[in-house]
Amino acid sequence: MSQKEEIQVDEKLVREIASLARLDLTEEETATFVPQFQDILKYFSILNELDTENVPPAYLSSANKSVTREDEIEESVPTEEFLANAPQAKDDYVVIPRVHIEQ
Amino acid sequence: MSSSRAFTLNNRSAMDLHELSIQDTHELLASREVSAEELTRAYLERIRRLDPQIKSYVTISEELALGQAREADKRFKTGEGLTPLTGIPYSAKDSISTRGVNTTCSSKILENYKPFYDSTAIKKLKSTGAVLLGKTNMDEFGMGSSTENSGFFTTHNPWNFDHVPGGSSGGSAAAVAAGLAPFTLGEDTGGSVRMPASFCGVTGLKTTYGRVSRYGLIPLVSSFDTIGPMARSVYDVALVLEAIAGHDPRDSTSRMESVPRYSEGLKKPENLRGLRIGMPKEYFVEGLDAEVETSLRTAIRQIEGLGAEVAEVSLPHTQYAIPVYYLILFAEASSNLAKYDGVRFGLSERGGDSLMDVYLKTRETGFGPETKRRIMLGTFALSAGYYDAYYLKAQKVRTLIRQDFQSAFQTCDALITPVAPTTAFRIGEKISNPLDMYLSDVHVVAVNLAGIPALTVPCGISNGLPIGMQIIGPHLSEEMLLRIGHMYQSQTDWHTKHPPCWND
């Protein structure tokens, strides 16, 4: 995909993205997002004005390089406290419904 | 119990406890004329009375606050363990984890979530003996510039209830402005401390990335998020900063450098001779409200009067800061918000058949429209086929923006700019057009891209709404920024002005 092409946003694209993002959008939401995305992405294409061929990406925000610690056992979170937040729990486990397997 | 008490402090009689600075409040408590518990009760009563109109608090932690206040009173009695913040009440933005107290990020997906741990910043304040009054309202997960995107309710600007307090730390700023807390912990990812501080007429600091530990701060953009204090003076902000800053082994991005006694640096009166101030010309263009510009230029002249030299500089890539900021935000936020899946904590919609149903329905119900919009755009920007053109491109332009600041700091010690193009806009004015809302961030986001610190202080009022001035410095230059702000506040009185409800 060329950097100069303008993305055409349609309901199909919005639905694909929603699926990746695990969002169950309504018809209305999907329809509302289409023009909003189009406008926003169009505005962002201003970045194409800049030649960044030889510019490195600014991935690192921190001043630190790799930070490690000694592999020493420390106190961890008591299981009951952790499970107290779980929507459903049994014994020492967090409970979820079965993973649905597509046939 | 009323918050109105007549007493004298340093030969000054103050009617109301909420009017006092942190330092004066501390002296009052140390003199034992007022107990920490009485003080906390006074604030709680004031919150009960005024906050229904302002709606700055999401959760009021009354029991915890009174318990902490009694602990503080023990310290005052024995004289042990006293710090400048002992017994001082504060509020914290609801994205900062507080053990046993709801931490919601103003989102339905975390509406009843109680962390089992304190964030490091909160832990540090606990050790000083400060008192947590409650958690303040925000745009959901920090996504917004007006607090209108809160999943619960909008906060009102104490200066004019029809106007927004700014965002995303709107509740925090409004609480301080209305005298509902002497200080607050806010959080700044793309202007979220500075903008509400400016709109509400209080002093706010965006700290250097890594100066304050992010452990326990519920992340929005891991590359940009910073915790920073707001209060009613630079001196008060310095007192809070020295308590919360510092390296934390639990945050591998936290800086190793030691923490200066920021408040000590402000005690010797100094002029600003030799200080070189830059005014980036790209920040003073069309679209800037005339009165905001006038206030800024007046303030800069006053700083010149203190001995500083002022010159125009250029940050040539300024116009690209918003798309760069938002693209990186969308991408990182979509990644950070993937954890809200109804499995281990938070809202969980279990009505369907399968795990996928839990994900889909929980996130559909739990997230507001702006949050969904940003998650979608981020997912898009990171997806195969679009990653290079959007996310990678943004990170490259980010390098150029950082280089702009590096160049500017070769000829200047600090930069001064407006915080926002206008004063606080009306509730509802920008909410229907997301792009409009994004564009109001033009003066603040570049700072987050570079990870550098910026202080905002009140410098004017227009039609009853405050105007803020932003002072930007290189990494770890908080001492200098606080010095400039403190000197400015010693010559001016904008920071002593209060909204109409102040005397209620």
Give the overall shape of chain B, derived from the CA principal axes: globular
Let me know the largest β-sheet of chain B. 11 strands, mixed
Quantity of strands of chain A, as a count: 2
Poorly predicted tracts of residues of chain B:
none
Overall average pLDDT of chain A: 88
The gyration radius over C-alpha positions of chain B equals: 22 Å
User: Biggest interface pair, residues each?
Assistant: A-B, 52 and 74 residues
Q: Describe the global form of chain A.
A: flat
Gap from first CA to last CA of chain A: 33 Å
Order of helices and strands of chain A: HHHEE
Q: How would you describe this protein?
A:
- The complex is a heterodimer of chains A (about 100) and B (about 500).
- With about 100 residues, chain A is mostly helical.
- Chain A has three helices and two strands, in the order αααββ.
- A two-stranded antiparallel sheet of chain A has the order 1-2.
- In chain A, strand 1 and strand 2 (about 95) form a beta hairpin.
- The longest helix of chain A is centred in the middle third of the chain and has 18 residues, at about 25-45.
- Helices cover about 35% and strands about 15% of the residues of chain B.
- Chain B has about 500 residues and is of the alpha/beta class.
- In chain B, strands 3-5-4-6-8-7-12-13-11-9-10 form an eleven-stranded mixed beta sheet, sandwiched between helices.
- Chain B contains 15 helices and 13 strands.
- In chain B, helix 2 (about 35-55) runs antiparallel to helix 3, helix 7 (about 235-245) runs antiparallel to helix 15 and helix 9 packs across helix 12.
- The longest helix of chain B has 24 residues, at about 390-410.
- The interface between A and B is large, with 52 and 74 residues.
